[in-house]
């Protein structure tokens, strides 16, 4: 069998309900989206990265940011994120899809590469994810075959399945073979960290991490963030009160 074409698709839009425009907020002189896409593009095993955004004029700057980095852009309906992902996967001629979200500017390419490698090591799998309850929140990624994405896009009617892309797959363990989510090889210290950007407090923390680490180590990984937070334990309090949005 030919090597599958593996494509990472990230979703981004300007009209986030809790922190509008968050993906273009600056850190170390660049938008968070640019940091996210640059880091994602360094993932071992990836053949391409695509940004999925909306057709709204408000997302023209999002598309322009990605295109300035040489990242192809697919634009679709704001509410139907599943349809957007299916369109982006078709544009990129993907066989396997890695799904991430652009509110994760500290995404770790080595960790996403491990996800890809583990998925490919077991050809029977239909779905594999990074365990966001065991890793810091903001390193999240999922991988699955494009054929299942196309099936979901054709058949899903539940609004939550259209908005969140993968519930159509992981809610049906009787039909699809779900792998055991990736967990850290050693306990995360400090625990209960939150590095995704949903609210101003999240941005403040992520901004500090990028500004502190990028100059001395442009290829910093998630463990470098943990070490910095051990050195600055008070930073953990910046966004401790923020609660993760749950699936409808």
UniProtKB/TrEMBL annotation:
Enzyme class: transferase
Source organism (scientific name): Azospirillum lipoferum (strain 4B)
Annotated Gene Ontology cellular component terms: cytosol
Lineage of producing organism: Bacteria, Pseudomonadati, Pseudomonadota, Alphaproteobacteria, Rhodospirillales
Domain of life the protein comes from: Bacteria
Entry protein name: 3-deoxy-manno-octulosonate cytidylyltransferase
Coiled coil residues, start to end: none
GO MF assignments: 3-deoxy-manno-octulosonate cytidylyltransferase activity
InterPro entries in UniProt: Cytidylyl_trans, Nucleotide-diphossugar_trans
Pfam families noted in UniProt: CTP_transf_3
This enzyme's EC code(s): 2.7.7.38
Keywords: Nucleotidyltransferase, Plasmid, Transferase
SUPFAM superfamilies: Nucleotide-diphospho-sugar transferases
């Amino acid at each position: 069998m030919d090597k599958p074409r593996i494509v990472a698709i990230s979703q981004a839009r300007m009209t986030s309900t809790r922190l509008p425009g968050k993906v273009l907020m600056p850190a170390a002189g660049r938008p968070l989206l640019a940091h996210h896409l640059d880091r994602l593009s360094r993932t071992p095993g990836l053949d391409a990265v695509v940004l999925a955004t909306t057709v709204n004029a408000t997302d023209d700057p999002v598309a322009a940011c990605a295109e300035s980095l040489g990242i192809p852009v697919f634009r679709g309906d704001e509410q139907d994120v599943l349809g957007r992902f299916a369109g982006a996967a078709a544009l990129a001629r993907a066989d396997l899809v890695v799904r991430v979200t652009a509110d994760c500017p500290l995404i770790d390419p080595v960790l996403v590469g491990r996800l890809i490698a583990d998925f490919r090591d077991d050809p029977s799998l239909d779905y594999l994810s990074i365990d966001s309850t065991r890793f810091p929140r903001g390193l999240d990624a999922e991988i699955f075959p494009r054929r299942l994405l196309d099936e979901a896009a054709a058949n899903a009617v539940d609004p939550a399945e259209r908005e969140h892309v993968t519930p159509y797959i992981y809610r049906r363990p009787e039909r699809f073979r779900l792998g055991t989510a990736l967990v850290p090889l050693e306990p995360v210290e400090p625990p209960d960290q939150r590095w995704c950007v949903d609210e101003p407090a999240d941005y403040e923390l992520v901004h500090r991490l990028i500004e502190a680490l990028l100059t001395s180590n442009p290829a910093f990984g998630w463990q470098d963030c943990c070490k910095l937070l051990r050195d600055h334990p008070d930073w953990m309090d910046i966004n401790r009160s923020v609660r993760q949005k749950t699936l409808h």
